[in-house]
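Please, does this match?
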Amino acid sequence: MTDFQNEPLQDSNNASDAQKIDGIVGQVRADIALGNAGDARALLTERLKDAGIEASSIDFEGALATIIDQR
């Protein structure tokens, strides 16, 4: 077999920012549901910053509404 991983998996992730935001929303919702976080806005801000995503205010507020509406 000649299939080798020649780069870190993160470097080969071709997800769009919208897909990444959706994933982060899922993570934040899970953290809140498990009691690991209380402030959805702060956690979402932190996660987006950590991922290097600069969401527009519309995208951010939409993501936050999704988190809050599904608590």
